[in-house]
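Hi support team,

I'm opening this ticket because the web form for multi-chain structure prediction keeps timing out on my end. I have pasted the exact lines I submitted so you can reproduce it. The total is 927 residues across two entries, so I didn't expect it to be a heavy job. Is there a limit I'm missing, or should I split the entries? Thanks in advance, R.K.
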Amino acid sequence: MVSLTLQGITRKFGDVTAVDDVSLEIARGELFFLLGPSGCGKTTLLRLIAGFYAPDAGSILFDGQEVTRRPPHRRNTGMVFQNYALWPHMTVRENVAYGLVLRKVPPSEQNDRVAEALRMVRMERYGERSPNQLSGGQQQRVALARALVIRPDVVLLDEPLSNLDARLRLEMRDEIRRIHDETATTMIYVTHDQKEALSMADRVAVMDTGAVAQTGEPRSIYDRPANAFVADFIGETNFVAGRLTRLDMPLAVETPVGILHSTIEPAEDLSPGDEVVCSIRPEAIRVSRPDPTGGEEENVLSGVVRQTVYLGDHEQYSVQLDDGTLVKLVDHRPGQRLAGPGAPIRLSCDPSRVVVIGKPG
Amino acid sequence: MNRTRFDLSDLTPGVIAILGVLVLFFGLFLFYPILHVLMNAFYTDEQFSMEFFGLMLQSPVQQRALLNSFELGIVTTALTTIISLPMAVALVRYDFIGRGLLGGLALVPMIMPPFVGAIGMKQMFARFGSINLFLLESGLIDAPIDWFGGGGFWGVVILEALHLYPIMYLNIAAGLANVDPSLEESARNVGAGGFRLFRTITFPLMLPGYFAGAIIVFIWAFTDLGTPLIFEFREVVAVQIFNMSTDVHGNPLGYALVVFVVLVTLALFYLSKKFFGGRHYEMVARGHVTSASKRATSFETVLIWGMLLSITGIALIPHLSVVLTSVTERWFMTVLPSDYTTAYYGQIFEHDLTLLSIRNSLWLSVMSTAIDIVLGVAIAYLLTRRRFPFRDTLDAVAMLPLALPGLVLAFGYISGFSGTVLDVRISPVPLLIIAYAVRRLPYMVRAAYAGFQQMSVTLEEASMNMGAGPLRTLWKITMPLVLANIAAGAILSFSFAMLEVSDSLILAIKEPYYPITKAIYSLMGRITDGPYMASAMGMLGMVLLACSLLFTGKVLGKRMGQLFKV
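Hello R.K., no limit was hit. The queue was backed up. Here is the completed structure from your submission:
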């Protein structure tokens, strides 16, 4: 198990810059996620760490040791491929034992470790099968066992669940998290599925067109997106555009629908007068009723309900604000409808849930 | 992510070394001989001249030879078209009982080189051969018919057509299968049907496939050496070149003839690329297209069975005649042999010439196959796994020998390497091995290419990730997974090398070096037991080729057809 340091990694394919000056620190034993839409460079970054590509610039360090030019077979990483890549001419056991044979592990120890790895992924009864006789989920588990058995310095998972059906995917999420906690190995996990990342990760790096847009724990990524891309890519959000009028706490943003206050420190360098957007999650907006104590409410927005969608455990509302902006909100106790289409409505949200972001572009 | 055509980081020293070897090999044994012939044809006394072409065109013998060869090519192509077109339509477009069986049977005639068939056919269709005797005895004719009229022209045409129609059929079938059924459906939708539909929509769309097959058939017939030799139909380009190959220094006409053959070949391929190249690929690119086939009515089924069985039946007559001849003790003025014997099969293993030739062929073919395996696997690996400059060029060069007549290559070797250590007068062995290897390399490349392509690169990456170096990965993962394909390609290369005709006839100039095919040819010159022993030898070759084709078909399945396409 190692810590990883990536310093200014850049990798081009012809004219396309797949990975653009990426620097990351990944701690020992961390379950670290690379999250982003397809084509954002996350798989390329993983393959650079595995050694299948060499970077055009930058360096990769395992525990402070330079490995940038080391060939893949001398990096001691354990990779789980998107298509599993089990060798069809070997049994499950032979697949798993392959890395141990290469490491000249004595046969008796090999047997123990293969059995142990298969047990860990709950495939101990399938050792003599051929990979072709296994289901997708089972192949996935074998691929995981094969990567784990060599006790790699870091486990690399390339969209490991993308070929499984929805139910199996949920099950395998728990499995991988459990195996991570059991082995305490450093793992880097590539996915485009934000739910996978939010639910499993210790930390996440969100990637956009080759660069890291934000790194942080799932909670901070969701609650305090550093820029419009992250806010938009992770979960759903409402953007209300305006101009920053005060940089001291609480921040104030003048918008066509009134002044919005925020108590969240912006991630970017902003100065008063800048064009900004306020990102407000749908679940942060609530329907405002006149305060019986007569206290003044903050961040009040008024508009007209345009559409409601009832989904059992929650109900979604589309509201058109006075300036025409559409915002979404969710009511998590949809016992009865708050207001029907066409009805005027007053909304409000807590300043601690309004994120001020520099206007993109 | 692999959008670029090449990546300099793929140009490792190993890859550069392999590319270097390939450039050297193809340069020396493919391009140099051809260039040498070109130079000698155009330069006399250090001066550019077209003199030989004038000589070639003025000589009445050469004129007739050229005309005859063109006629052979055209008539053979026409005949194979007539045979293969209905066959392909029936087998691709109709679904009927026994479709797979009949489709397989249709390919069986390929198992024998036509010049071996010619030996048997001469026995059967000779002036007083079985067929004439049968017809005379039954009173149907009064005088023997000259079956191979025109000095053997028709004999050559029929044997070549019967041998080559499977190649034409495979190409037409592939062309037909590539025609998107929705294109026909939309034509039907606007009111075209029956023959009109075929003429206006289906045929133009399958034309690229047809043309690819037609070119192979034409060039084959145009340059075939063995069959005209057996029929003693000597006024054809191939035989003229063969005669002149023994005297490359004295008679410069051979160069001009070879250049002529090269030009004809080039012109045909240029035309096909120009008119069909682009379209061909568009059609293939839509890989999901599967041609819809129609369930045949019972009447249609009977019709199709009748047609396919009679074609295959007729095509197997030469084979049958060879079998008969090989077990004939006495066959003189009777319909069937009057006495049978298996003695010739024993004799071929005792007789010096035959035994030596079997040994020579085995040894030469093993060596050439070994070269093919090494080069073919390396080329296929580079083409599927690495990005480097001039990839397409390597692909094209490796496939070039499919289009290049063996005759041209052999003549180029004789003349180009004369006076060097590789001179055939010292020993033809190195050049025979190399000629076989170059000629059969495309089969090996295609077979290995298919294997590598089927195999996901991540299987290799997973192995490296587990700690195996590139060589161990190649040995433990890649090789076992493409072994079946390599074996199929190797066996095919081997058996075609065993039965290679034109290279063997031209290059093996001394009896101790005769391979099987040249021994058969030389046996034909012996009046007494020559044809019988030649037939027995031919049978050996036939069995060998049949077994290897069966095995290859098993391994490659539907992709078998790709081996015979340009």
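A quick check on our side: Chain A has two domains: 4-223, 236-358. Let us know if the file doesn't open in your viewer.
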